[in-house]
Amino acid sequence: MRIAQVPPLYEAVPPRFYGGTERVVAHLSDALVDLGHEVTLFSSADARTRARLVSVRDQAIRLDPKPLKSDLAAHMAMLVEVRRRAAEFDVIHFHTDMIHFPFFEDMAEKTLTTLHGRLDLADLAGVYAAWPQFPLVSISDDQRRPLVDAHWAGTVLHGMSADLYRVHPRSEGYLAFLGRFSPEKRPDRAIEIARRLGKPLKMAAKVDPADQAYFQDKIEPMILSNPHVTFVGEIGDAEKSDFLGGAEALLFPIDWPEPFGLVMIEAMACGTPVVAYACGSTPEVIEDGVTGFLVRDLEGACAATQAAASLDRARVRQRFEARFSATAMARRYLDLYARLDAGCAPLAATA
Asked: 10-residue block means of pLDDT along the chain (351 residues)?
């Protein structure tokens, strides 16, 4: 098939550091190429891909040093280029929320739109109701709950390259937190779990401008007052294998309806079990007692973290390969692409 992939432009594909959507698009594009398909990626020039790259910006927006830039203008310029070349593709796969709807409403039947964020925001329901012709893909079944009546074509859980991270047969005895220092990610819970257990905790995370006050007022004092907590900073793929693989467990103590949580499967790829609060997508991603544990309170989290060392790390990796490899994800998307190309009705779910 001739497939266009259209990610947002905030991060490179894949990102140099933090970034979920663009990382998933990178793995999906490469896996589709490996499966024999003709893939065109619309992205910034700093993308690394086996697909054919159409550069629509000199570099990704977040790390662009220019002080003044318009993310809206950048995305609109990209969509104009995709529209100009639309006849070249059997399927145009968007990862840009809903901004492309007005541009492509006359050819919605050849598009697929994966929604990567939370859907309980004001105004979203009205937009998806106004353009019901666009087939949508959720990245977990739980993500759909605020928009149950939207035009869902299926659910496809994320995947990533099985070759990116290596399995660590044993841990180095510390706990890991990876992601963003934001209130909904609950890094404070991770610090408290480690404190109660007397275990070292390494935290690799970025601080968005919107979360700067939260970090300085809440998290930084907790880190500075605990000699067993190490703030590593923001890391990229090259560092994740050692960081996650050396951990006894990844702590994922979220307090929000996480649509997926890519860090969970990154840890699994290293053979590292995940201790997560049962919230949002986590019950769909973690196999309780196999690839980690699902918990509901701090006491349960501490007990599960102690038990994580008993899980078979080789088995954790095996379950990652079976459920969350990039190839597995690409095959699920190909099923949806084929139904679009054949003019068939959407599937209920493909997770």
From this structure: 97 85 96 98 96 96 92 97 98 97 96 96 94 97 96 96 90 95 96 97 93 95 94 88 96 96 96 97 98 98 97 97 96 95 56 42
Which helix (H) or strand (E) is 197 found in, with range? helix 187-197
* CA-wise closest residue to 96 among 25, 10, 7: 7
HEC per residue, 71-126:
HHHHHHHHHHHHHHCHHHCCEEEECCCCCCHHHHHHHHHHEEEECCCCCCCCCHHH
Number of H helices, E strands in the chain: 13, 13
Half-sphere exposure of 22 (CA within 13 A, CB side): 23
326 neighbors 162 (Cβ within 8 angstroms): yes
Beta bridge partners of 3: 39, 91
Distance from C-alpha of 78 to C-alpha of 51, rounded to nearest angstrom? 17
Q: Rounded to two decimals, what is the model's pTM? A: 0.92
Residue 42 CB partners (closer than 8 Å, separation 6+): 4, 5, 6, 7, 54, 56, 78, 81, 82
The conformation of residue 144, written as its DSSP 8-state character, comes to: G
Residue 140 makes CB contacts below 8 A (sequence gap 6+) with: 155, 157, 259, 260, 280, 281, 284, 285, 351
The strands making up 174-180's β-sheet, listed across from edge to edge, are 229-231, 201-206, 174-180, 247-252, 274-277, 292-295
